[in-house]
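Why should sequence recovery work at all? Because a backbone constrains its sequence more than one might expect. Tight turns favour small or flexible residues, buried strands favour hydrophobic ones, and helices have their own preferences. The token representation captures these environments compactly. In the example below, the structure is given first.
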């Protein structure tokens, strides 16, 4: 029996399977930064506030001075933000903040409600600021949707990597954001996450395959959904298919799958997990189990703004001299070098 169920082209927003809600993939070749940490370039011709067209290879998104996503609310799910290149400035309604990137991961449980902003400061004023980010929305089960919000940093230095050699000695590098592989176990996820229970077999990995290498994925238990997103490279082969870049490979996790890479380095994101199997009601930034709960979320946000906004602006960025850091709601601050 073959492992591959379906192969689908990737859209701007990547489709996912339960327990994941979707994955946003942002890759931008930002120019040099200016004194306000925005692009040192003319912004004429852009739909400011809604700039999703990759003019000149980059986008401002909802930002008007600095690229990114000014303050917005969430309830009922989690965001797992993987920044492979560049930096993100986080600020939220709990008073927490951070600057992270270049391999760091932020895990945020929205729970009963939080506002946050995600801005992309362009710190380098001497050369370009390349940027590559995945944001994965991971659902919360009914009994966890109204837990207290929680924010956690998984620093690049602490995230385990498995280096595998195929039978020709070629290397496959796997970054283990959740799950375990080759005797290496990921940093603990947020405590109320569906990923916190090992029985749910949540694996979030990024994978880099050397040219002409081959990799066989370890099997999961039966009933575990697995998708492999081929986002950079040329083409790969598996189970008689030749698969071009920018495709999602949906597989049975419990059946053996081998990928043979082509003649260029290839990159993948793997999302795997046991489905939650509950009704999902989504509207914008809220994910609950039914429409009544969505209406309640909207009404509560309109009334309380989930604690308000304690920062000077909705597109707040931190001082240029700040390195990577995490400031938690209790006032604890952890600092890292850029």
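From this structural description, the recovered sequence reads:
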């Amino acid at each position: 029996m073959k492992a591959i169920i379906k192969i689908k082209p990737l859209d701007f927003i990547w489709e996912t399977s339960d327990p994941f809600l979707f994955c946003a993939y942002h890759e931008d070749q930002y120019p040099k930064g200016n004194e306000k940490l925005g692009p040192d370039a003319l912004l004429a011709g852009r739909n400011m506030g809604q700039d999703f067209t990759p003019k000149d290879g980059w986008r401002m998104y909802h930002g008007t001075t600095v690229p990114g996503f000014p303050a917005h609310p969430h309830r009922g799910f989690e965001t797992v933000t993987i920044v492979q290149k560049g930096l993100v400035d986080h600020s939220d309604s709990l008073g927490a903040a951070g600057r992270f990137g270049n391999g760091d991961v932020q895990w945020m449980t929205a729970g009963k409600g939080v506002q946050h902003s995600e801005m992309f400061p362009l710190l380098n004023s001497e050369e370009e600021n390349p940027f590559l980010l995945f944001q994965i929305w991971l659902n919360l089960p009914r009994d966890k949707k109204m837990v207290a919000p929680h924010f956690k940093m998984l620093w690049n230095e602490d995230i385990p990597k498995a280096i595998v050699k195929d039978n020709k000695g070629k290397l496959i590098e796997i970054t283990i954001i959740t799950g375990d592989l080759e005797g290496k176990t990921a940093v603990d996820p947020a405590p109320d996450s569906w990923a916190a229970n090992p029985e749910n077999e949540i694996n979030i990995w990024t994978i880099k395959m050397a040219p002409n290498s081959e990799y066989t994925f370890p099997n999961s238990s039966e009933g575990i959904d697995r998708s492999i997103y081929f986002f950079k490279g040329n083409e790969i082969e598996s189970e008689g298919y030749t698969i071009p870049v920018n495709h999602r490979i949906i597989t049975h996790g419990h059946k053996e799958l081998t990928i043979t890479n082509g003649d260029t380095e290839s990159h993948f994101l793997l999302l795997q997990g046991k489905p939650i199997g509950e009704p999902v009601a989504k509207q914008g930034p809220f994910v609950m189990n039914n429409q009544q709960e969505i209406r309640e979320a909207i009404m509560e946000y309109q009334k309380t703004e989930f604690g308000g906004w304690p920062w000077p602006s909705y597109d707040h960025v931190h001082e240029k001299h700040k390195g990577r850091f995490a400031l938690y709601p209790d006032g604890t601050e952890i600092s890292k070098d850029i």
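A few observations help interpret the result. Residues 130 and 232 are 15 Å apart (CA to CA).
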